[in-house]
Amino acid sequence: MLEDVxxxxxxxxxxxxxxxxxxxxxxxxxLKVRGYKVGLLDIDLCGPSVPYLLNLESQSVHxxxxxxxxxxxxxxxxxxxxxxxxxxxxRNDAVVWRGPKKTSMIKQFLEDVYWQDLDYLIIDxxxxxxxxxxxxxxNLRHVPQCSAILVTTPQAVAIEDVRKEIxxxxxxGISIFGIIENMSGxxxxxxxxxxxxxxxxxxxxxxxxARVPFLGSIPIDPxxxxxxxxxxxxxxxxxxxTTSKMFDELVRKLSKSPTNGNSETSANEDL
Length: 271
Ligand SMILES: Nc1ncnc2c1ncn2[C@@H]1O[C@H](COP(=O)(O)OP(=O)(O)OP(=O)(O)O)[C@@H](O)[C@H]1O
Ligand code: SF4
Known about the structure:
Mean pLDDT: 86
Structural class: alpha/beta
Strand content: 15-25%
Order of helices and strands: EHEHEEEEHEHEHEEHEHHH
Number of domains: 1
CATH architecture: 3-Layer(aba) Sandwich
Bound molecules: adenosine-5'-triphosphate, iron/sulfur cluster
Low-confidence stretches: 260-266
Distance between the termini: 35 Å
Number of strands: 11
Largest sheet: 9 strands, mixed
């Protein structure tokens, strides 16, 4: 099943709340809008937010003859989604599982979802380097078309955490496609002027030190925040905003990368 996916992208962040699920969903939506067939797998077992972000909370998955059938956002079935959120009876239900149960659920997510042929599978992970990551890395480290996109915010503390993620990827043998800096300045809804609230450029500097490609910056944009819960792509709704341009550029870079996903194979050893 995973062997049939042309590119697998793990979306990782060191800290919570930096916009990892926003990046995962907007990347999946941009790929769909640009004509690709996409799967989005949410393995954040304790805080699955993808069903909410895509306005799919009322949906549930079912078992078909070939495995779990994902929830499709569209009738053409170009964007399929799988999340633990579809298996909970309410958004407020907590998943309180110990390591082995989490591990077995993630293995099922990786092995038993019937995605059909996909151009891209985006995997949205929980923050940090938890049981979920270790399981997913162990299962994907030998899949050559798999690489990671790291999401950070400009603050030094988030940058430090992403540095740990780089080391984690290196240790587990997952190549890094690049780093995105989210919440990089604030876009005024009145005049679209972008103001740096925190320092900016930390993601780019780290990418240079770590010799990992820098994929671009996304400002805090209230209009992008409002797309959360609507399942709409920024590239369709706000085609001229910085965020949309960044995602279109990212899709272009992905389409040009070798199918084996290894745009970066020699991250700096001395982090
Ligand atoms: N660039 C942005 N502009 C405006 N709002 C944003 C932006 N990025 C993220 N947000 C908002 O910030 C909140 C957190 O984003 P998100 O859920 O994507 O973070 P996360 O890193 O996945 O969080 P978690 O650690 O809980 O998984 C959401 O309400 C989202 O809509
Ligand atoms: S950026 Fe411009 S429009 Fe926005 S609040 Fe400041 S002065 Fe007003």
